[in-house]
Known about the structure:
The protein is built from five helices and six strands, in the order H-H-H-H-H-E-E-E-E-E-E. It is an alpha+beta fold.
Amino acid sequence: MHARRTARRKAERTAPTEPTEPTAPTEPTAPAQTASTEPTEPTAATPTAGRRTARRAAGTAAALAAAAAGLALLPAPAASAAPAVESRALAIAESKRGDPYRYGAAGPSAFDCSGLVSYSYHRAGHSLPRTAAGQYRATHHISGSHREVGDLVFFHSGGSVYHVGIYVGGGRILHAPYPGRRVGTERLWTSAVWYGRIY
Length: 199
């Protein structure tokens, strides 16, 4: 029995060992993929919001167009030129103080009423008709409450203009009165007057 055990041990020692199977290579671990953030799609505007935005844009554009059109239609102001012409005409008429009245005369050394006005305004750079009635038709008519220095004062009777002077303020006019008188200032003696302005 002991001999069999010894023989078995020897046989086990001398028996070739079976080659061990190579360890299968470990598959590389796939790198963790970083989740890419996909761009979010813009939230679609609701139809109601879109219509409101369109209406606001259209309203703004219309307002701007109307404002531009309104500005384009405004006439160029002539207010700055009017006082200059009237002031020059009044200064010229003032320089004729003391010159005699003569019917039908329009300067340079004698005048009737409309002759003094037409002469003064012509020298100031603005032409007016020769007669008082024609001068009234050529002016912009204003009320007495809006009269200013340099405006023309027209005396009338029965709807007809018969005399004209230049307003100098304080209820007074500069004019060529009538035969035997000279160019000078005088207080208004009647309320039957109309006012005219060149501009």
